[in-house]
Amino acid sequence: MSVVRIEHVYKDYLLGDQKVQALKDITLSFEPGVFLAIAGPSGSGKTTLLNLIGCIDTPTSGKIFINDVDVSGKTPDQLADLRNRTIGFIFQTFNLLPVLSAAENVEYPLLQRRDVSSEERKKRVKYFLDIVGLAKYAEHRPNQLSGGQRQRVAIARALAILPSIVLADEPTANLDHKTGEEILSLMKQINRAFNTTFIFSTHDKRVIAKADRLVRVEDGEVSVLAVRSEEKKWSLARQRHRD
Ligand code: ADP
Ligand code: MG
Asked: Residue with the nearest Cα to atom 7 of ligand 1?
């Protein structure tokens, strides 16, 4: 089984009457539990790829499977439901609601879930704030927290739905180097402890070094696919040949 499978995916954007080919013939699949970096320069298609995997957007052509379910032909409502149950998001700018406390931010995505009781919600909020080391900050608002602490709240919020995949678009881009490393280490600990799949984009070499799978995109195409062994050596699984 694969947690994500992408088959011959193209994504075009229309900019006025200009067509921008953001992704060209992407075929990839990932097994559950990977800690995967999508690397590439600005404009290469990283955010577009994450948005397709996250069912925020749909491909122009090609198919995407999440947990072996074809999501390509689903309606926006069906996709929203799938997202609420399956996919946790972490953003570069944290995207916390400023008027809510840390605990309320973590609880927020669960409010749309009728199958999660209020008792269960409170339990999860406490549990995940504890996991990210913010038990003491539950009542703090985002503006009373540092950047690293805000990203920890965002991680707890992503985990609260018990997702099978966490997607993070340049999660360390607004953090200093040391804080970024701590955030990555925390994500990796959670990945190892819960076997949650993490897919994150970055153009930071030090962040890439923490991954155990690497997809490099250039001009909307996969240029390198690499796997890291237990001995921390990368081996190429695929490399695009340029003539
Ligand atoms: P990255 O995240 O790697 O910086 P993006 O996925 O954001 O790259 O963008 C890939 C390409 O698609 C770029 O050329 C970008 O300008 C273009 N693009 C992204 N979003 C849109 C959009 N909504 N409308 C038009 N073009 C877009
Ligand atoms: Mg981007």
From this structure: 47
Question: DSSP letters along 31-81, please?
Answer: -TT-EEEEE--TTSSHHHHHHHHTTSS--SEEEEEETTEE-TT--HHHHHH
Above 60 in pLDDT, residue 116? yes
Residue 241 has pLDDT above 70, yes or no: no
Please name the helix (run of DSSP H) or strand (run of DSSP E) that holds residue 129, with its range, or none: helix 118-131
Q: What secondary structure letter does DSSP report for 121? A: H
223 within some domain: no
Q: Residue 218 domain-assigned?
A: no
**In the structure, which protein residues have their CB atom closer than 6 angstroms to any atom of ligand 1?**
13, 15, 20, 22, 40, 42-48
How many domains would you assign to the chain? Answer: 1
Please report the DSSP string for 84-105 in residue order.
HHHEEEE-TT----TTS-HHHH
Residue type, 215: V
Q: Which amino acid is at 86?
A: T
The answer to whether residue 212 sits within a structural domain is: no
Q: Residue 181's pLDDT is what?
A: 93
C-alpha to C-alpha distance for 106 and 226, rounded to whole angstroms: 34
Q: Which residues surround ligand 2, an ion (CB under 5 A)?
A: 46-47
Residue carrying structure tokens 């699984």 = 237
Question: In which domain, by residue range, is 115 found?
Answer: 4-207
